[in-house]
Specification:
This protein is α/β, with parallel strands linked by helices. The chain has one domain (58-250): Rossmann fold (3-Layer(aba) Sandwich). It has helices spanning 5-32, 50-54, 82-86, 102-113, 120-129, 146-152, 156-168, 191-198, 207-210, 226-237; strands at residues 93-99, 138-141, 177-179, 202-204, 215-222, 243-250. Helix 5 (120-129) crosses helix 7 (156-168) and helix 8 (191-198) packs parallel to helix 10 (226-237). The chain binds zinc ion (2 copies).
């Protein structure tokens, strides 16, 4: 049964007005059920309430020009940290939005381990709105091994990367960088062990895709940087130009 032109016109009109209809319905709904903060469930007008936002320790002071390590002294001229001087990472620059503690730590735990995927949008927007650069060609989320993906049901880095991609209208590639080796969680491992643990666990399927591209590599948490360093190594080997790392949170030891 083919669509008659009249129905087609109706469909087009509906399609045209759908976003407006949606927004009217949303505003009406907001009056009946006020939107809740995605982190604490309290009243909020935009995903995260003011209270929760205040509990996020955004990284705003001086950081290592390469790896983004926050310096204790907030007012220092741009320089590299000791680790980066000792061994320059394969990525050009890494930055994190906020410290991995307090409200943000809680939110990331809920997101990742309790599968609260509705947090992807507000958390991804925190990254998208504070993205410190725009000279990249493609967003690449740190991949999960398919066994881990099956366990968790989703890749948190991909969900975050999607929000950045949507907000900035930039392409995303979540298939070409692969996790080929299943590794134990990094959580109980220390610095050097972490690097060893992830060594050889990533591969690029088609090197032509990343050739001469600037890549925005996205992950949820930066701890020692072992994972993103290993990814960067593999991406560079496959011909990528520069790798910029953006993580939502960073473990900051005080
Ligand atoms: Zn809240
Ligand atoms: Zn550094």
């Amino acid at each position: 049964m083919g669509m008659i032109p009249h129905d087609k016109a109706k469909a087009i009109i509906l399609w045209y007005y759908l976003p407006m209809l949606k927004s009217i319905l949303q505003s009406a709904l907001n009056i009946i059920i006020p939107p809740a903060c995605h982190i604490c469930g309290g009243a909020a007008d935009n995903y995260i309430c003011a209270n929760c936002k205040q509990g996020i320790n955004f990284i705003l002071g001086a950081v290592c020009t390469i790896c983004g390590l926050p310096f204790v002294s907030k007012e220092s001229s741009p320089h590299m940290c000791g680790e980066c001087i000792k061994k320059k990472p394969k990525f050009a620059m890494a930055r994190s939005i906020a410290e991995y503690n307090g409200v943000l730590l809680e939110a990331i735990h809920k997101f990742k381990y309790n599968a609260k995927t509705s947090l992807a949008k507000p958390l991804g927007l925190l990254m998208a709105e504070r993205l410190p650069l725009n000279n990249y060609n493609v967003i690449v989320p740190v991949p999960l091994h398919k066994r881990r993906l099956k366990e968790r049901g989703f890749n948190q880095s991909l969900l975050l990367a999607r929000e950045i991609s949507k907000k900035h209208n930039t392409p995303i590639d979540y298939l070409n960088l692969k996790r080929i080796r299943f590794t134990e969680p990094q959580i109980n491992l220390k610095g050097e062990e972490r690097l060893k643990n992830v060594r050889g666990s990533f591969a690029v399927e088609d090197a032509r895709v990343f050739k001469n591209k600037n890549i925005l590599l996205v992950d949820d948490v930066y701890t020692t940087g072992a994972t993103v360093m290993e990814c960067s190594k593999v991406l560079k080997k496959s011909g990528a130009k520069d790798i910029f790392v953006l993580t939502l949170a960073r473990v900051c030891r005080v």
